[in-house]
Structure formats: structure tokens, C-alpha cells
Write a structure and sequence with these properties.
The chain has 126 residues and is α/β, with parallel strands linked by helices. It has five helices and five strands, in the order βαβααββααβ.
């Protein structure tokens, strides 16, 4: 099975990736490392993306909203990408809405139009 994971560098996304890879699935994921931009080095997931690559996961470092065609050919899409901070959302409501709401709607619409047989699991933080 080919599994595509948005937010693959985060806690949940990386755990899903490790589990799927251990079970023999093909794993492709995407993460923009926005946490590193928003919260500094302490929030960066670059180190986690390196670990996932070492175990054989294919990782795209970009915003999932810019790479929706990368999902094509996937049997399962696990959507874990999201802006995770409630404090950040209060001071950046447009960014929060763009990532969490509009990004998810774009993903779902893309799946509906272009890969309707894929299953989607939504596990995003917000």
C-alpha cells in the first residue's frame, strides 16, 4: 500500500510513518517545517525528516498545499499537517485558517476530483 502523510515531521505524522514503514508499506510524506519558521530552532522538525529518510520514507520538504499532485497514486492519505498552536492562531488568524481550514478543504477537494479511490484519515492537530 502507498501511504501519503502530510505533516510527516510532526509527532503524529512521524509515528504513523514509522509504523507504516515497519509494516512494509511505501511511505511518502510532506512537511514544510513551518514550525521551525514560526517557533524557531526548538520547533524545527528537520532532524525528524532526516530520521524518516534514513528508514526509507520519501520526504518532500514543502507546504502540502503546493504539492497536492504528489498524493496521486496513493491508496491512503493521512492528513496530519496543521498549525498546532492555539496561541499562534490568536495572533495569526489568517495563517491559521489558511493552513488548517483552507488547506484541508483543498486537500479533500483534490482527492475527490483526482484520486477518488484513495481513503483519507484526518489527524491534524487543529
Amino acid at each position: 500500500m502507498r501511504i501519503f502523510i502530510t505533516g510527516i515531521g510532526g509527532l503524529v505524522g512521524s509515528a504513523v510513518a514509522e509504523t507504516a514503514k515497519a509494516k512494509g508499506h511505501e511511505v511518502l510524506g510532506i512537511d514544510s517545517n513551518a514550525r521551525g519558521t514560526w517557533f524557531g530552532d526548538a520547533g524545527s522538525v528537520v532532524w525528524r525528516l532526516r530520521e524518516l529518510r534514513k528508514i526509507g520514507c520519501r520526504v518532500i520538504q514543502n507546504d502540502f498545499r503546493n504539492e497536492l499532485p504528489a498524493m496521486e497514486g496513493s491508496d491512503l492519505i493521512v492528513h496530519c499537517a496543521g498549525q498546532p498552536s492555539h496561541d499562534f492562531s490568536r495572533s495569526h488568524p489568517k495563517t491559521d485558517s489558511s493552513v488548517n481550514y483552507a488547506g484541508t478543504m483543498s486537500l479533500m477537494e483534490y482527492v475527490r476530483k483526482y484520486i477518488p479511490k484513495a481513503r483519507v484519515v484526518f489527524l491534524s492537530t487543529n
